Amino acid sequence: MKCAIIGHGKMGREIENILKERGHSVELIIDEANSAELTAENLADIDVAFEFTTPDTAANNVMTVLAAGGRVVCGTTGWLQRLKEMELLAEERGGALFYASNFSIGVNMMFRLNRRLAELMNPHAQYDVRIEETHHIWKKDAPSGTAITLAEGIIAELDRKDRWVNAKPTESSDLEIESFREGMVPGIHTVTYTSEDDFIELKHSIQNRRALAMGAVLAGEYLADKRGVHTMDDLL
């Protein structure tokens, strides 16, 4: 693949390394210093663009790629209010959008286990459910997109809102999430069901960014000959 990287921070550099390891070429790198170079002309020969920037810039970056009929893998969170707009644009312009709140294969397995656990716990009203997430101090959005996805999975299965406990509301649901920002932590997500007698805990910890970057590259390889809107469900 001929690739573009939009956002050359820690994740962008990790994606670049993995792309080269797997025989792909990085033809275009966009960062704050050269953001004006993200144009349809410069994207013309790009097979897949990888967008990992900030909540404030992600939607416009994705829009630029899709408006040019391109393919984009986006892992930036915190801009979901414009996701539907971008999905429609991908369909209209014949491009392709692959969005995920988290590209770790392990986290996406947790999403599936989370929904199944919520289904099993639904009849047992003695358990309260809460979500905690911890990330490094530089993460822009809180709660994390991964935590929001976990909350949405629980809400889809549970019908007793009075069981939901925590400290901070998500941007997209009534279930609340407690967020922590500490040191260099790549990402820890925990779902806990607690009763007076016991608790059940579902937890995933990322040890390094390579887990995320590898998933993003796999998504790009999957997307390279696709059109339309795709998710980790399609990849897995």
Please tell me about this protein's structure.
This protein has about 240 residues and is α/β, with parallel strands linked by helices. The protein folds into two domains: about 1-105 and about 210-235, 3-Layer(aba) Sandwich (Rossmann fold); about 105-205, 2-Layer Sandwich (Dihydrodipicolinate Reductase, domain 2). The protein is built from eight helices and eleven strands. Helix 4 (about 85-95) links the parallel strand 4 (about 70-75) and strand 5. Helix 1 (about 10-20) packs across helix 7, helix 3 runs parallel beside helix 4 and helix 5 packs parallel to helix 6.
Provide tags for this entry:
single chain; 236 residues; alpha/beta; Rossmann fold; Dihydrodipicolinate Reductase, domain 2; 5-stranded mixed sheet; 24% strand; elongated
What layout of secondary structure does this protein have?
Blueprint: E1 2-6, H1 10-21, E2 25-30, H2 40-43, E3 48-51, H3 58-67, E4 71-74, H4 83-93, E5 96-99, H5 105-121, E6 128-135, H6 145-157, E7 168-169, E8 176-181, E9 188-194, E10 199-205, H7 210-223, E11 228-230, H8 232-235
Parallel strand pairs: 1-2, 1-3, 3-4, 4-5, 5-11, 6-8
Antiparallel strand pairs: 6-9, 7-8, 9-10
Helix pairs in contact: 1-7, 3-4, 5-6
Helix content: 25-40%
State the domain count.
2
- Per CATH, which architecture of the largest domain? 3-Layer(aba) Sandwich
Approximate shape: elongated
Unreliable residue runs: none
The CATH superfamily of the largest domain is known as NAD(P)-binding Rossmann-like Domain
* Beta strand %: 15-25%
Number of strands: 11
Strand order of the largest sheet: 2-1-3-4-5-11
**CATH topology tier name of the largest domain:** Rossmann fold
